[in-house]
Specification:
- This protein is α+β, with helices and mostly antiparallel strands and about 180 residues long.
- Helices cover about 40% and strands about 20% of the residues.
- It has one domain (about 5-175): Trna Endonuclease, Chain: A, domain 1, CATH 3.40.1350.
- The chain is built from six helices and nine strands.
- The chain is globular, with a radius of gyration of 15 Å.
Length: about 180
């Protein structure tokens, strides 16, 4: 059975955050020097990344001694993702937000733009009024929020997100 595009990108992100040398080498081929340097950080300080069962409402869970977060992976050829086009996406985001608030975790959305040079990953979080504890709060303040329209619909604009390499660099700087 062939892997779906979503599975391919989930695996890509899993291997990148896990510090897989082959995945990082492939990723940095079109990255600039700063992006490449940031990706190399996870070679020395990797996450344990687990692919989550669909019932959890997230794709990956990244764990490390200093940070842990659930990740929902999205990919597209379009730079803008409107959650209102698929009611399941909004429902999934609301469930993830509620669960993470209860658990004091930061919900992460990783948006992979297809066919782009450089770092193709952008990171977002779901907007919430809840303050988190410790380093999760530092990240919550730093990571761009998914846009909420006047009608209450979520919109992710790839260009508004934080580069994954910048998130990796930031997390290593807060140690």
């Amino acid at each position: 059975m062939a892997a779906t595009a979503g599975d391919i990108y989930e695996r890509e992100l899993k291997y990148l955050l896990s510090g897989d040398r082959k995945a990082i080498t492939k990723m940095v081929k079109t990255c600039n020097e700063g992006e490449s340097r940031s990706y190399s950080i996870v070679l020395e300080d990797p996450f344990l990344v687990v692919r989550a069962a669909g019932s959890l409402g997230v794709d990956l869970v990244a764990l490390r001694w200093d940070f842990s977060f659930p990740i929902e992976v999205k990919s597209s050829v379009e730079e803008t993702m409107h959650f209102s086009r698929n009611p399941r996406l909004t429902e999934q985001a609301e469930k993830m937000k509620e669960t993470c608030c209860k658990s004091n975790l930061l919900p992460i959305y990783a948006f992979r733009l297809k066919s782009v040079r450089g770092d193709p990953w952008r990171i977002f979080t779901i907007p919430t009024e809840n303050e988190l504890r410790g380093r999760n709060e530092l990240l919550r303040k730093r990571i761009p929020k998914i846009e909420v329209t006047g009608n209450g619909n979520y919109v992710m604009r790839w260009g508004d997100g934080m580069k994954l390499c910048d998130l990796i660099s930031y997390m290593s700087a807060t140690i």
